[in-house]
Amino acid sequence: MAEAKRVERPLSPHLQIYRPQLTSITSILTRITGNGLIVGTLLAVWWLLSAAVGPEYFALANGVATSWFGDLVFFLSAWALWYHYLAGLRHLYYDAGKGLDIPTAEKLGWACIIGSVVLTVLTAIIV
């Protein structure tokens, strides 16, 4: 039998040839924001627990929480919370069997991204 000539190519879509799609990016962002919310939660819990430990320890935790780093963590946590919330609503819509065609899915993806940014800015202005 003649040997088959092997073609040298990836067996599955590889990062070098795969073009990320909006639906995959929003799915990855949902996972990242879900895990990223832990950072803001840990900072808030540390701040609250430090109040029970003592005034010196609270001064340290309050200094970190109200510094530029704390402001950045809480601002990004607000964005992550809004994004994760909107992505959850989108997922419920998908679970109902609606919006599964590509144009609608992309519109919903952009709605999650833009909506989370707008809601985060409004939250920062109001709070």
TrEMBL record:
The keyword Membrane is assigned to this record: yes
Subcellular location(s) of the protein: Membrane
Main location: membrane
Needed cofactors: heme
Record-linked PROSITE patterns: SDH_CYT_2
Transmembrane intervals: 28-48, 68-87, 108-126
SUPFAM superfamilies referenced in this protein's UniProt entry, alphabetically: Fumarate reductase respiratory complex transmembrane subunits (SSF81343)
Pfam families, per database record: Sdh_cyt
Keyword annotations: Heme, Iron, Membrane, Metal-binding, Transmembrane, Transmembrane helix
Top-level taxonomic group: Bacteria
CDD domains in the cross-refs: SQR_TypeC_SdhC (cd03499)
Membrane topology qualifier: Multi-pass membrane protein
Subunit structure and binding partners: Part of an enzyme complex containing four subunits: a flavoprotein, an iron-sulfur protein, plus two membrane-anchoring proteins, SdhC and SdhD. The complex can form homotrimers.
Family assignment from sequence similarity: Belongs to the cytochrome b560 family.
Function: Membrane-anchoring subunit of succinate dehydrogenase (SDH).
Protein name (database record): Succinate dehydrogenase cytochrome b556 subunit
Species in which this protein is naturally found: Gemmobacter denitrificans
Lineage of the organism: Bacteria, Pseudomonadati, Pseudomonadota, Alphaproteobacteria, Rhodobacterales
